[in-house]
Design a protein that fits this description.
Blueprint (H helix, E strand, L loop, with lengths): L44 E6 L3 E7 L9 E4 L5 H16 L6 E5 L2 E3 L4 E4 L12 H9 L3 E5 H12 L8 E6 L3 E7 L2 E2 L32 H4 L1 H10 L9 H9 L3 H25 L3 E5 L7 H14 L9 E3 L6 H14 L1
Parallel strand pairs: 1-4, 4-7, 8-11, 11-12
Antiparallel strand pairs: 1-2, 2-3, 5-6, 8-9, 9-10
Bound molecules: zinc ion.
Length: 342
């Protein structure tokens, strides 16, 4: 899953700091707010990104334009009720009376039931939460929900780096390795809503290494941010190098060990994603998450390993950085809310 940014500054857009004003828009007749004057007033929805540490929300127009972002801590220790209250509070803080709310949340989400199927220890008790109905009770407007990485892919396909593409594979490399597959513009959830967990592909570079899922040998165990930092330490790197951001800074300065560690993780990921591309034949592959800000010492071996894996008809398949930064998931979630209104 996307984690904290490391390495080179991705720029204001990728940091989610862009304060794009949402221009008033005339909504379709079906979503016009009722008003005594009969004059249409701008209709907006709210997009929300619920993560294990923080929750972000913004008003989003029907063209995907994003208003100022409100970010609050996610009160996971208070349990699901506290998290739902925090989400509702963030939406209310936006003002603007959104006509609907879309939520991208950590965890495996069933968008049809509107509930959390399962979640990691990062969000205790989150599994089983009736996300949609709980928020509809608190906010009094329709709510649409999906997983945050799926929402990220939808956001990029709406207004970001995959704009207009129909078949998109998103790879999110941060504290874990996650992903999402869009087919004909829609999320492929799979039979159990688990589709997209590409961090748990077996790769030879990870043989014997424990994975967060309880298994061993999965690409997340060599390619995720914490795995890269751990590999640097295992290889004899200085204990003063506190995190992956510091490893990436060393690699950018030409440090051989830091560069080799980043390259090993990137190559493993690149081969795995290249193999997936052969299976799926997407329009493009998007790469996002904090690790994707590690710069050329990570991107170059990733691209080389990816390209080497591709079948000849896929030789020109783009491997593209995500464009929307930290707003991607809330934009995609807002798109789900708009879809529900139309
Ligand atoms: Zn695993």
């Amino acid at each position: 899953m996307p984690g904290p940014a490391v390495g080179a500054d991705p720029g204001p857009a990728a940091r989610g700091l862009v304060r794009t004003a949402v221009a008033p828009v005339h909504a379709p007749r079906s979503v016009l707010a009722a008003g005594g004057s009969g004059r249409p007033r701008p209709v907006l929805v709210a997009g929300v990104d619920v993560g294990g540490t923080k929750t972000s929300a913004a008003l989003v127009g029907p063209d995907g334009a994003v208003g100022p972002v409100v970010t609050v801590p996610t009160p996971v220790s208070g349990g699901p009720a506290a998290v739902l209250a925090a989400v509702a509070g963030a939406v209310r803080a936006l003002g603007g009376e959104p006509a609907a709310v879309g939520v991208g949340s950590a965890g495996v989400i069933d968008p049809v039931r509107g509930a959390v199927v399962s979640a990691t220890e990062a969000m205790p008790g989150w599994a089983g939460t009736e996300l949609r109905s709980g928020l509809e009770q608190l906010l009094g407007v329709p709510v649409a929900v999906d997983n945050d990485v799926h929402a990220h892919a939808l956001g990029e396909a709406w207004t970001g780096a995959a704009r207009g593409a129909r078949c998109v594979l998103l790879v999110a490399v941060g504290t874990g390795v996650g992903g999402s597959l869009l087919i004909e513009g829609r999320v492929h959830h799979g039979a159990r809503r688990v589709a997209g967990h590409l961090g748990h592909l077996a790769v030879p570079e990870a043989t014997g290494l424990p994975c967060t899922c309880g298994g061993t040998g999965h690409v997340e165990a060599v390619a995720a941010g914490p795995a890269l930092h751990a590999a640097y330490r295992r290889a004899g790197g200085s204990p003063d190098v506190a995190d992956l951001r510091a490893v990436a800074a060393l690699a950018a300065d030409g440090d051989a060990l830091a560069s080799a560690v980043l390259a090993t993780g990137a190559r493993a990921l690149g081969r795995a994603v290249g193999g997936l591309a052969n299976v799926l034949d997407p329009d493009l592959v998007l790469i996002g998450g904090g690790v994707s800000h590690c710069g050329p010492p990570w991107w170059e071996p990733l691209r080389a390993a990816f390209a080497a894996e591709l079948l000849p008809p896929l030789a020109e398949l783009p491997l593209t950085p995500c464009a929307l930064g930290t707003t991607a998931a809330l934009v995609g979630a807002a798109g789900l809310a708009w879809h529900g209104l139309r």
